[in-house]
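S2.1 Query sequence (Glutathione transport system permease protein GsiC)
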Amino acid sequence: MVGYLIQRLLGVALTLLVAAALIFFLLDVLPGDPARFMLGINASDESLAALRQQLGLDQPAIIRFGQWLTGLMTGDLGMSASQRAPIAELILDRMQLSLPLAFGALVLSTLIGLPLGIFAAQHQGKPGDAGLMGLAQIGIAIPNFWFAMLLVVVFAVTLKWLPPGGFVPWAENPTAAFRALILPTIALALPQAAILARVMRTSLVDVARQDFIRTARAKGLSKSQALWRHGVRNALLPVLTIMGLQFAFLIAGTIIVENVFYLPGLGRLIFTAISARDLFVVRSALLVLVGLVVIIMFLVDLLYALVDPRLKKRATQ
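Output structure tokens follow.
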């Protein structure tokens, strides 16, 4: 098992290194001069040269890349050119909102999607199955930003149950912070729950046709008992992959949803940094998002090893 973990951790490190290189060099070769953008078109050559030197833009790209990697490993990401604040502090502050939002949406989509998928598989071909899969298809087709605006109209504007946007820091008022994340979490979770329900239903229907399920039925178990005791675990294998990929979609979705609800999260930080052409913030925040996705996929690999006996045996060898 130790060898399996080391192999996966090396894969994580290599993936992050490649991602960092791609992010840095793609942003570094973008057209336009960040110094001229910040100072304006009427800035003098002397002012531009001074700012380029201050930001390190006068150095070769490979040197700047090495300095950025060193800063990532030490936690010193430099200063934001637009906000005049440490980038690490900006990212950590915004992650207090974005992480609960993304993980809350992942948990909620799992709690909704998996039971509905199992229920649909148990009632395959019946009205309940057709009705749930029809609703799931609608949930997949609806963009989360449109669904977010619909939730605001219904629950914030009409019913006035929840706030329409904004965020109160957790330290000031945890209840208000939690209430502010309810609608964004639902807006992110329900479309993903629809995907999970369809994948779980399809996977479990395929498993139900396997010989070991027929054997369990022949021993006296009902269809539901056979599926719950022997089918669900085997059906989870493709679902785990989808759940890992879903986290990437949830992270990307936070950029849109945070702007709909005016939440000061990591997605909104990236949006405002792009608008201000603050490439230092953009590249560090993007790498943090990539790192979160890579870590989730690493955890999915570990769950695979626990759920699939073949992988578990290989990991312990």
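The chain has a mean pLDDT of 82. Residues 87-316 form a domain with the MetI-like fold fold (CATH 1.10.3720.10).
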